[in-house]
């Protein structure tokens, strides 16, 4: 089968609608997709004996032994189609890929995080082998450039039992691991490479499955490239897979405008926070897309969760040494950014939200030494900065910055502060969302205060849309909770 000719939207065949081809096809050697039921050969009980390769290479993954066949599950992964593995099932292709350089994506949900093989090359310890697995509570990647010489690295963050886009990328110098678009770890010994063609195994590292480390969980899509994708290409594939398999949360109280929403962080949802026993926050989940979360692995740089920090509402408390950041994936050439925060210091340079730097494509919202709120963007290398007319305040504020092709604006609590109009080219670059600082690590100007909600759009909102978002945030955060005693002065 070959579905690569379908490059956008959906392909409709008969009564079945399936997603179009991945956005990057150069070097794609193997592609299987459970959302296309016509690509599966099943028996009457749903056991899968063949999963057809959709790349056009005819490298289908097969299994002739019924007891070793996974089962098709139309709603197995977040209500979407998958193949179910229980540790004794696997599928394998004939030799079809040289992994000397490679990029592999696997959309799966594990039900066990001990030793569990996700994707392999059918053997290990020999030249050209690879192995993606969960191992001792971590995600782990391997590559053998020559016999018994291997590159391996385990993730910093633990393995999870939620849907994941597992990724391994090997170039001439390093092995990189990613999950859900976030960088996990790197191993960088440079070995000479042997160019050996290998098969693709799903769910086991051996053809006889004699090792008790078969995958347990759901598997929905696999993409194998015989080259190292660039960062830009890798992110395009991640977007394609995330939109397809990891949809945004559909929950009450979501923002009224969701088109173009790339980041939504909300301290009122305690389930979106990963905290330790003392309340330090290591991860603030991005509810716009269920991935690309804001994280901080260093304990001393983690903000503190407070149940009544901002206007008696939940917040994350930043002390000047705390920063959280997402991976670089937002294009700020046009943007709308909203931050609900309460600064405790307003007459110093204190960064509220940045994008990782001060280069073309970056932005920065901050309070400054002059006691003003200041917005920045770097459209093409030049610095565009706007200072508020009215002074900064230590009360809760909806900080806002918007930019389209000609105009940049800063606002607070829905009130326009300043406007700048320029017709200059905008840089299209992918940047992070940095909370409490302009960089991914804390600096001398890091934010001090409370932060409760962040919305980042990769487009300029209309005036009506801005009003809708401002109203939503005002009613949620700037009105004290019902029953709060307000002291009249």
Strand content: 35-45%
Count of all domains: 2
- First-last Cα distance: 74 Å
Number of discrete helical segments: 2
Q: What share of residues is helical?
A: under 10%
CATH architecture of the largest domain: Sandwich
Low-pLDDT stretches are 5-17, 484-489
Basic shape: elongated
For the secondary structure, the number of strands is: 40
Largest sheet: 8 strands, antiparallel
Task: Please report the first level of CATH classification, the CATH class of the largest domain.
Answer: Mainly Beta
Q: Given the helix and strand composition, which structural class is it?
A: mainly beta
Chain-averaged pLDDT = 88
Oligomeric organization of the protein chains: single chain
CATH topology of the largest domain: Jelly Rolls
| Rg on CA atoms, Å | 24 Å
Describe, in plain words, how this protein is organized in 3D:
This protein has 489 residues and is mainly beta. The chain folds into two domains: 10-245, Jelly Rolls; 261-478, Sandwich (Jelly Rolls). It has two helices and 40 strands. The strands form nine sheets. Strands 3, 7, 8, 11, 16, 17, 18 and 21 form an eight-stranded antiparallel beta sheet that branches. A hairpin with a 2-residue loop joins strand 7 and strand 8 (80-86). The longest helix is centred in the C-terminal third of the chain and has 16 residues, at 463-478. The relative contact order is 0.11. Mean pLDDT is 88; it is low at 5-17 and 484-489.
């Amino acid at each position: 089968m070959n579905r690569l000719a379908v490059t956008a939207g959906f392909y409709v065949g008969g009564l079945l609608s399936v997603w179009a081809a991945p956005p990057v096809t150069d070097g794609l050697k193997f592609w299987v997709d459970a959302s296309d039921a016509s690509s599966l050969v099943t028996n009457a009980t749903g056991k899968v004996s063949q999963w057809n390769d959709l790349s056009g290479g005819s490298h289908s993954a097969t299994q002739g032994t019924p007891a070793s066949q996974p089962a098709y599950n139309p709603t197995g992964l977040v209500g979407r189609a998958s193949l179910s593995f229980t540790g004794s099932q696997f599928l394998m292709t004939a030799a079809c890929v040289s992994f000397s350089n490679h990029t592999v994506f696997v959309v799966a949900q594990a039900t066990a995080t001990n030793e569990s093989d996700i994707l392999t090359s059918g053997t290990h310890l020999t030249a050209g082998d690879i192995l993606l697995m969960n191992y001792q509570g971590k995600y782990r990647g391997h590559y053998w450039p020559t016999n018994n010489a291997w590159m391996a690295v385990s993730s910093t963050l633990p393995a999870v039992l939620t849907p994941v886009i597992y990724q391994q990328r090997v170039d001439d110098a390093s092995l990189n691991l990613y999950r859900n678009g976030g960088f996990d770890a790197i191993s960088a010994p440079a070995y000479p490479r042997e160019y050996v063609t290998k098969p693709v195994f799903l769910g086991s590292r051996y053809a006889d499955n004699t090792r008790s480390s078969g995958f347990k969980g759901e598997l929905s899509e696999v993409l194998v490239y015989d080259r190292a994708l660039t960062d830009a290409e890798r992110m395009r594939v991640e977007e394609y897979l995330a939109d397809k398999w990891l949809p945004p949360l559909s929950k009450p109280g979501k923002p009224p405008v969701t088109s173009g929403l790339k980041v939504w962080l909300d301290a009122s949802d305690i389930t979106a926070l990963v905290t330790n026993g003392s309340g330090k926050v290591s991860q603030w989940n991005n509810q716009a897309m269920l991935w690309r979360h804001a994280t901080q692995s260093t304990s001393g740089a983690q903000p503190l969760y407070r149940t009544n920090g901002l206007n008696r509402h939940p917040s994350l408390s930043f002390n000047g040494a705390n920063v959280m950041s997402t991976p670089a994936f937002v294009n700020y050439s046009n943007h709308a950014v909203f931050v609900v925060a309460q600064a405790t210091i307003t007459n110093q340079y204190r960064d509220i939200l940045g994008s990782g730097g001060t280069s073309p494509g970056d932005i920065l919202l901050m309070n400054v030494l002059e006691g003003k709120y200041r917005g920045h963007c770097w459209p093409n290398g030049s610095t565009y900065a706007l200072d508020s007319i009215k002074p900064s305040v230590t009360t809760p504020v909806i900080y806002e910055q918007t930019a389209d092709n000609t105009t940049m604006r800063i606002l607070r609590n829905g009130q326009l502060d300043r406007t700048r109009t320029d017709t200059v080219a905008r840089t299209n670059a992918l940047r992070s969302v940095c909370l409490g600082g302009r960089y991914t690590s804390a600096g001398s100007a890091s934010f001090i205060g409370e932060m409760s909600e962040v919305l980042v759009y990769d487009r300029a909102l209309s005036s009506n849309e801005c009003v809708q978002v401002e109203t939503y945030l005002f009613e949620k955060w700037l009105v004290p909770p019902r029953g709060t005693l307000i002291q009249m002065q």
